[in-house]
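Why do we bother with holo predictions? Because pocket geometry can differ from the apo form. Keep that in mind while you read this record for adenosine-5'-triphosphate.
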Amino acid sequence: MNTPTARQPDIAVEMRDIVKRFPGVVANDHVTFIALRGEIHALLGENGAGKSTLMNVLSGLYTPEEGEIFINGEKVVFHSPRDAIAAGVGMVHQHFRLVPTLTVIENVILGLDDPKFRLKLEGARAKIQSLSEQYGLKIDPDAFIWQLSVGEQQRVEIIKALYRGAQILILDEPTAVLTPQETEELFRTLRSMAEKGHTIIFISHKLDEVMAIADRVTVLRQGKVVATVAIDEVNKEKLAEMMVGRPVIFRIEKPEIEPGEEVLRVEDLHVRNDKGLPALQGVSFVVREHEIVGVAGVSGNGQTELAEALYGLRPVEKGRIFLYGRDITQASTRDIIREGVAQIPEDRHREGSVGNMGISENLIMKHYRRSPVSRGPLIDWGYVRDFARKLVKRFNIAAPSIHTKARLLSGGNLQKLILARELSSEPGLIIAMHPTQGLDVGATESVRKQLLEEREKGAGILLISEDLDEVMQLSDRILVIYEGQIMGETPGEGADRNEIGLMMAGENRSGTGDTSLQRNTSNA
Ligand SMILES: Nc1ncnc2c1ncn2[C@@H]1O[C@H](COP(=O)(O)OP(=O)(O)OP(=O)(O)O)[C@@H](O)[C@H]1O
Ligand SMILES: [Mg+2]
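The structure, written out:
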């Protein structure tokens, strides 16, 4: 490649020598990043490598300490996202910023300087419809946000950016929360945007997706650029190695182990969701020691409610839950924890951690009433520091110190923190919900290994995940959930993807095949 200059016509974005520091970290350390017009450019890197920070700089959320930004060859200085949007840069964050009680149209035009808000609605509707047709973004302009699926909400965010004239669209881990079908649709949209000359910058940890959709890739490691490469010069293994700095094994060994005693038994469970509608309608299954039972399904089919009911966070309407044969149907979360149940929750910010507490406090949260953390009423801070340091090392949590507040951790490092706390409690039952979502390849590998280790040690694991590859790779048995019911069960070994896919779409196979448990309990 020639030495890039800001004047080259096909360069849409040039970030030159960007430095962005936070207390104790250089999140972006002299980063130079170039994205071309009409390309899909993936940004890769380990958790905490500085990807979100760099894109927050480009979208005007952060001001860098050093460096320059050029958009279409023009030097720009952004003081806010508004400035960035005016220059044609829009960003879709991983946590959407939509108002649930407003409609799609209202959300799209919200915040635009326009005194005649009401009059504007009709014009907006036409424009939204035309954008939606042009880019294949199916959406009902009059639907309320709360009625929409996650995938649809993401479409609204994209339309919102396009409506404001975004030529450069940044998406931070856009597929982490999407179903495989929604991901396909999003990719079609992104391709059609690129064909029309937009620049797409897309952060992801899913290397298969990056290989499938990106034209070029920039890899960051510890705040620095490792390289920018064309996609046809690399493969998945090479990308992983560039990110982590060592080869990554994608296949992991899962030893044969006979399952032991029953750890969890769920019988005819009925639970309602937040809107008072049935979320689980007669779910029954068993998890034994040394066993990973996968629950596959498109999100929103009762998985969240299942995990919450098992952890004592949601009332059970009908049915029974047994832990080691003891009825815990009405037990409190605190008792359930005391019985040795660990949970890796779906929402890491709300349920999994206390943002304003440090790493070490977050790590001992489950243990602080007990020895050796507490001696009588006093907490042994020396012990806590040692304990925290060991876990930070074992789980490879990247942070300036064990006192860093949880809310300042990158997405992946926060997940590692929760895993460290939960797995260090030597649980008998682990309820793991999307345990590797948002984790980089190295961390994903290590979390999967840890779960397999817990299985060897004797834990029973309920693995709730939308990632079929993950479910198939780790599970001894797979249950497929659809609209609050188990559609069927298959052994993990040699499971048929298509078969699982059909059940995920609602085809009931529970009457056939090797589903002994189903037959015993499903007509209860
Ligand atoms: N607002 C902030 N205050 C303090 N430190 C921060 C802040 N935002 C990010 N950091 C730190 O900067 C570094 C880079 O974080 P960033 O969120 O950019 O990583 P990332 O590459 O997006 O990681 P992930 O894949 O986990 O999302 C991390 O060490 C993180 O803890
Ligand atoms: Mg990030």
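Residues 22, 25, 27, 45, 47-53, 398, 408-413 surround adenosine-5'-triphosphate (ligand 1) (CB under 6 Å).
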